Amino acid sequence: MQFKKIGSKYVVRLDKGEEVVSTLKQFCEDNKIKLGTIQGIGATNQATVGLFHTQTKEYHTQKLMGDHEITNLTGNISTKDGEVYLHIHINLANTDYHTFGGHLSEALVSATCELMIDVIEGEVERAFNDEVGLNLYQFE
Predict the structure, then answer these.
(1) Structural contact between residues 119 and 36, judged by C-beta atoms closer than 8 angstroms
(2) Is the pLDDT of residue 92 over 90?
């Protein structure tokens, strides 16, 4: 990974073989980023995406193998129990130009991944909500 900080923003490049989610989480921890937004594009050859089923309150994931363009990666940075918490969604296009999307659990960079991280001063904590079944922003 390489990056450049410009004001409150980071321009980040992940390299072939790096895992997107864990690398971004470590980056945020190392740079003390606790609130912000993430957007990016790139390429992956192995990604796990999920869909949250509201009836069962469970994530169902699918592993996508083979070349895929990351046509859009978007997410946010917050905290849960004081630790960095990433919530990232992704859209991927395969070699037949079929697209897939969902909650990103992991993705292995196959060529490059170019990201912009916009840091927001402050902190917003998350807590598990039993009714919904997800970790939601807390504003109290």
Answers:
(1) yes
(2) yes
- H helices, E strands: number in the chain: 1, 8
Are residues 30 and 9 in contact, defined by beta-carbon separation less than 8 angstroms?
Answer: no
Residue identified by tokens 């989480």 is 25
Closest to 52 (Cα-Cα) out of 15, 27, 86, 89:
89
Judged on CB neighbours under 10 Å (0-12, 13-18, 19+), 120 is: middle
Asked if residue 140 lies in contact with residue 71, where contact means CB atoms within 8 angstroms, the answer is no
For residue 112, the surrounding DSSP H or E stretch is strand 99-119
What does the pLDDT look like over 3-43, one tens digit per residue? 999 999 999 999 999 999 999 999 999 999 999 999 999 99
Closest alpha carbon to 42 in 118, 117, 107: 107
Helix (H, G, I), strand (E, B) or coil at 53: strand
Q: Are 105 and 44 in contact (CB under 8 A)?
A: no
Tell me what the pLDDT averaged over the chain comes to.
Answer: 97
Tokens of 136: 């939601």
Is the pLDDT assigned to residue 140 strictly greater than 90? no
CA atoms of 115 and 111, how far apart (whole Å): 14
